[in-house]
Amino acid sequence: MSDEWGVMGKRLSLFFLGGLILGVVFFQPFPTRAEKDSFVSVSQSGFDIFHAPENPQPGQAVVVALRSRKPMPETRAQQPLNMKFIDRKFSLEPVAEGWRGVAAVPLGTEAANYSLSIKVKDGTELALPITVVAHDYGEQRLTVPEEMATPMLPENLQKIKRDRQHLGVAYGSSGDSLLLAEMVRPPLSSTITSPFGRRRLLNGKPKAPHGGVDFQAAVGVPITAAAKGRVVLAEELYYSGNLVIIDHGLDIFTLYMHLNEISCRSGDTVDPGQIIGTAGSSGRVTGPHLHWGVKIAGVFVDPLRFVDDSKHLLKVPWEE
Ligand SMILES: [Zn+2]
């Protein structure tokens, strides 16, 4: 009996010891998901450079931030900077102790290693290596009236030309500093009928890939601003129909297409969730829906992915 208790006692103590070892092994401070999702950083030429996500896909934004490891003269620290990535230029705004900005990977970019270059005002050139990973967005075939797929009528071509000029003015007017102060939110809650990035064949002819995401929406459903910003275009265009474009600063724009009614005007400041119009079927459509787009310095990114990536804009990484 006492012997049995002795064996049991040993077994029990072994059990507890085992549990203790397992506890130590498994409850080590493993990197949490939040840490995994946050910025990766490198140090180069006296600067700390941060970016997120670590490996973007074509059609995804890359948030970049940097700071000097030694104090910089005030005047230099307060000047905006530019960065170049995959042959495109993006802006960086001065923030407390450094700079931050958003670059983007265009659709169709090959999976490879790229260099994001930043020229600091003291002449230092930084080169941040970023690996773009592949993503297949798939393909879609659509049938629309021929004059909508490939317009031929002179009045339509005239209108398209005028639309391009208006879009150029709108996209050329972004604010120097970021306006959005909270995470981007989709402009309505609904089923996705066509995801971002699909290669498109319109009436059998290859066209630009889908530059936004389509939400199922009946005519008249209210559409809201995805983030704080300034309306830079609110008018009817040939392809987009009734279109609203909101500037969120730093060349970040959100687009709302095929609206039935527009209830804001160019120049208006809008708050997140503010109604800017109602869904409709204006422009080149096969039925009523909302096409929502996010364009960063001329590059369309996946709006739903940007909803998630916008969390990297809420804080500069050294404030974490
Ligand atoms: Zn669409």
Strand content: 35-45%
N-to-C span: 60 Å
Low-confidence stretches are: 1-5, 19-36
Named CATH topology of the largest domain: Glucose Permease (Domain IIA)
* CATH architecture classification name of the largest domain: Distorted Sandwich
Structural class: alpha+beta
Number of domains: 2
CATH class of the largest domain: Mainly Beta
Small-molecule binders here are: zinc ion
Query: H/E order of the elements?
Result: HHEEEHEEEEEEHHEEEEEEEEEEEEH
- Characterize the main sheet: 10 strands, antiparallel
Cα-based radius of gyration, to the nearest Å:
25 Å
Q: What is the CATH superfamily classification of the largest domain?
A: Glucose Permease (Domain IIA)
How many individual β-strands? Answer: 21
Portion of residues in helices?
Answer: 10-25%
Give the overall average pLDDT: 89
What is the number of helical segments per DSSP (H or I, 4+ residues)?
Answer: 6
Using the alpha-carbon principal axes, give the shape.
globular
What would your notes on this structure say?
The chain has 320 residues and is an alpha+beta fold. 20% of the residues lie in helices and 39% in strands. It has 2 domains: 33-135, Macroglobulin (MG2) domain (Immunoglobulin-like), CATH 2.60.40.1930; 139-310, Distorted Sandwich (Glucose Permease (Domain IIA)). The protein is built from 6 helices and 21 strands. The model is unreliable at 1-5 and 19-36 (pLDDT under 50). It binds zinc ion (ZN).
